[in-house]
Structures are given as structure tokens and as C-alpha cells.
Write a structure and sequence with these properties.
The chain is α/β, with parallel strands linked by helices and 242 residues long. The protein is 28% helix and 26% strand. The chain has 7 helices and 11 strands.
């Protein structure tokens, strides 16, 4: 397809980290405040390299939201290497389904005002990863808040006061049973007449991915920005239809 980048990701290999790695350390006080959970276990750290920084992410196999997925890696790679096309400096950016926070960390390091959102049980680890990877490094302090797709948006995120330049979503389409709510959330934050741009990265795994993509393309003015064939990831740029 003309104008679409086809990209491989040979350098985006996660590297397991030891708990005592110097740049992955946080103080006991920080851990007590941002990581108190009896839900997650079998935690490990992974190191990623973006925007000239080594980024340490704590993951768990206990939750979809506590793992780094291919769509997040692909979108991080795209944003790092296309800063002229997508200039995030001092832009207001919302990430939905932020999970471990890797994408939000990279966007912070690119100079954006970031609000990272997810379900309540995901927020402690999300906050933990954001704090230790952006403190003293980022231009703006990231915010973390709860967002349940399709619910309470007008009250919690009123369009009159909460406008974003970009909304990001990476690997948020999977069999979680609330794809209607996900599409409603995308529509809420990219309203008609606004100038919000949605960037959605997705790895195709199931038929539901294709069905959601068809609905997405009917709902928004959507353009395929890039493809990562080896990972089966596509990145779309979208704006609301009037």
C-alpha cells in the first residue's frame, strides 16, 4: 500500500533484568507507596531501549495488563523514529489500556503531557513503572487514573475540560468482552469537530480483531501508517468523522 511503512523490529528484544540493577532500583518508601498488591506474583523486570534511555518495566504473567505486548513495542518504535511526523513535544496525550506503562514512558520521554489509564487493579504497577522511568528524565510529570471503557466518561473526563492532542491505544483488542465499550471510549475522546488524533497499534490474533478493525474504519477517518509484518502488527492513524 502506497505511503505505508513496512518495518521489522530486530532490535526490540526484551532482556530480563536482575532485581538489583542500578537503574531499576527504587527506594523502599517508593515501593511501599506505589507497589502494594497481593494479586501479582512471579514478577520479572525487562529492559527496553528507546529515546536514548534504558527503560525497566516490571511485568507479571497474572494479568493481560501486566505484560508488554507487541503493539506497544511497535508503537514505541514508530513514535521514536517518526518524531517529525508525530511531534509529541508539549502535547496532551491520553493512553487507554496503558498496562505496564511502557508506551506512556516513551511518550513522556518524547516530551508529552501524559495521562495513562487502565483498570483499578492495574494502576499500582503502572504507577510504579512510570515513576521510576520518568522521574528526573521527562519534561512533564505523567498522571495515572482509572478508566473503564464505555463507562462514566462525561463525568470523569468532560470534553469541555479534558481535551487531548493524541489518544494512544496498543493491543487493546483481545477477547475481553467489551469491544463495544472500547469503541465508545475511542469515540468519546475523539469527538466530532475536535482535533484529536487517535493512534492505534494492534496485533491481529483472532477474527474479532478483524471485525473490530472494520467497525473502527467505518467509525473514523482511518489511515494505515505502518506495518510490522513479522509481528503481524498494524498502526492506524484516525480522526473522528463529522
Amino acid at each position: 500500500m502506497e505511503g505505508v511503512s513496512s518495518i521489522s523490529l530486530p532490535v526490540l528484544q526484551k532482556q530480563p533484568e536482575k532485581e538489583n540493577a542500578a537503574d531499576c532500583q527504587v527506594t523502599a518508601v517508593e515501593k511501599r507507596h506505589v507497589w502494594e498488591s497481593s494479586v501479582y506474583d512471579a514478577m520479572q523486570k525487562e529492559a527496553f531501549y528507546f529515546v536514548g534511555h534504558r527503560i525497566c518495566i516490571r511485568e507479571s504473567t497474572d494479568s493481560f495488563g501486566a505484560l508488554v505486548w507487541p503493539g506497544a513495542l511497535a508503537l514505541c518504535h514508530y513514535l521514536e523514529n517518526n518524531q517529525q511526523q508525530v511531534n509529541l513535544m508539549d502535547k496532551a496525550v491520553l493512553e487507554i489500556g496503558a498496562g505496564t506503562g511502557l508506551l506512556s514512558v516513551v511518550v513522556c520521554l518524547l516530551g508529552a503531557w501524559v495521562t495513562a489509564t487502565d483498570l483499578p487493579d492495574i494502576l499500582p504497577n503502572l504507577s510504579f513503572n512510570l515513576i521510576r522511568n520518568t522521574e528526573g528524565r521527562s519534561r512533564h510529570t505523567p498522571q495515572v487514573t482509572t478508566l473503564t471503557w464505555g463507562r462514566h466518561h462525561p463525568q470523569d473526563f468532560p470534553q469541555s475540560t479534558r481535551r487531548y492532542d493524541y489518544v494512544l491505544a496498543a493491543d487493546v483488542v483481545y477477547p475481553h468482552g467489551d469491544l463495544d465499550g472500547l469503541l465508545d471510549t475511542m469515540c468519546h475522546f475523539c469527538p466530532p469537530g475536535g482535533d484529536t488524533t487517535l493512534l492505534w497499534a494492534n496485533k491481529v490474533r483472532f477474527r474479532s480483531d478483524m471485525r473490530f478493525t472494520e467497525r473502527f474504519q467505518r467509525t473514523f477517518h482511518a489511515t494505515l501508517l505502518a506495518e510490522f509484518p513479522q509481528q503481524e502488527v498494524r498502526i492506524y492513524k484516525a480522526t473522528s468523522k463529522e
